[in-house]
Amino acid sequence: MKKKQKQKLLKQFRPNFEQVRLQLFNEIVSKAKRDYNLSLDIFIDPKKKDDMTVAFNNGQQVQQFTVPMDENFNTVVKRIQKQEKGLLDRFSTNLADSIASYLQPNLPQGLSSTTAADSQEVVEEPDTKQATPQKETEKNNVAEVHDEKKANHDAMTAANFVDKIESFPKFTVKTTSDYYEVIEKTPKEERLLATVAKDSDAFTIEKALDRKYKLKTEVIPIIEAFAATPVSDR
User: Fold this and answer.
1) How would you class 180 by CB atoms within 10 Å of its CB: exposed for 0-12, middle for 13-18, buried for 19 or more?
2) What are phi and psi of 43, to 5 degrees?
3) Which end of the chain is least crowded, N or C, by CB within 10 Å?
4) CA angle 187, 189, 201 (to 5 degrees)
5) Are 161 and 173 in contact (CB under 8 A)?
6) What's the count of helices (H) and strands (E) in the chain, helices before strands?
7) Distance of alpha carbon 223 from alpha carbon 203, whole angstroms
8) Are strands 51-57 and 62-68 parallel, antiparallel or unpaired?
9) Closest Cα partner for 170 from 94, 100, 107, 97?
């Protein structure tokens, strides 16, 4: 069979957009149950067609919240429809992890966590007020020094920095000879999230933190403020 004929045949039997989206929902439900023992139901409310509605049954009551399905979300679904290798698994895993983190913040996270490797993959952090979508970066880390923001940061001592970081579940700060390291403790490993240089204002945000979409909006400003604090004032 010629290549063009084969491609045409495969396209004819390719699932439509709604079928692929339903497949994604089912994968999220399955992984949330397998990895976190969460009983979820995911569907589209006819009154909220632009949102993914997640219903969580904790055995006593059902909690519902919505996750926006914006243009970026739909783009990923279309790429899954085109059978991009591994995308369904990565995207559903990230969504299951984010939903579990939102529902039960103290629940061990990352038992099957994989990091999406495509800059266009988007995971919405569940939020009853509606979360802000962020794009996942393809680089393992991004070193940034925001000179224009330094004036807006209050000086932060190392002790203040540790207290603020460790107020987040499973987060801790370790010090080495050259860096302050922000670590997430999981049942299987200690995951490096960020580093701040001891002798300069340089810092690095690892991809493991960058994909925690809602959480990173709280954690990264703390890291930025500490990095912007003069070394002598820490």
Assistant:
1) buried
2) -155, 175
3) N
4) 125
5) yes
6) 7, 8
7) 8
8) antiparallel
9) 107
User: Is residue 69 a contact partner of residue 52, using CB atoms and an 8 Å limit?
Assistant: yes
Token duo for residue 175: 């010090």
CB 193 within 8 A of CB 184: yes
Instruction: Give the tokens for residue 26.
Output: 């089912």
- The answer to whether the CB of 79 falls within 8 A of the CB of 91 is no
One-letter amino acid for residue 195 of the chain = T
pTM, two decimal places? 0.47
Helix (H, G, I), strand (E, B) or coil at 213: helix
> What are the pLDDT digits (tens) for 155-204?
899 999 999 999 988 899 999 999 999 999 887 888 899 999 999 989 99
CA torsion sign, 98 to 104 to 106 to 109? Answer: negative
- The first and second tokens of residue 194, run together, are 């960020």
